[in-house]
Amino acid sequence: MRFKDVATLCERLSKTDSRNDKIRLISDFVGNLDSKNLRRACRMIIGRPFPKSCQKKTNVSKKSLLNALEGIIETEKYDEYYDKYGDFGEVIRRLFLESEEKQSTLKPEENSPEAIQDFLDR
Hints:
This protein is mainly alpha-helical. The chain has helices at residues 3-14, 19-30, 35-45, 62-69, 78-85, 88-102, 113-120. It has one domain. The two termini are 19 Å apart. This is DNA ligase ATP-dependent N-terminal domain-containing protein. Keywords: Ligase. Residues 3-121 form the DNA ligase ATP-dependent N-terminal domain.
């Protein structure tokens, strides 16, 4: 996963009004992520892609992101995991790992999640 790709997606989401269009954009993007990048990407997509000092938002709800992920991962345990972990990114990561064990058809991309996190922490 390249930061440029995440940033481009977030810009497109911020300019998209249709919830269904947002779900399609997110589904297309996260379908190519591995478990290491999924958590960070989800956090960025739900509105944390920009530095804290910036007022920009993607206007994507957790529900929209979860709907987009339903075609890629099994989300039946979402409520159970959210009650247990209380962190959306962690819940998605765990659901993805469980789904990844069941199907190995997703293609991991070369990535640098640390570089993305370093940029966001500035």
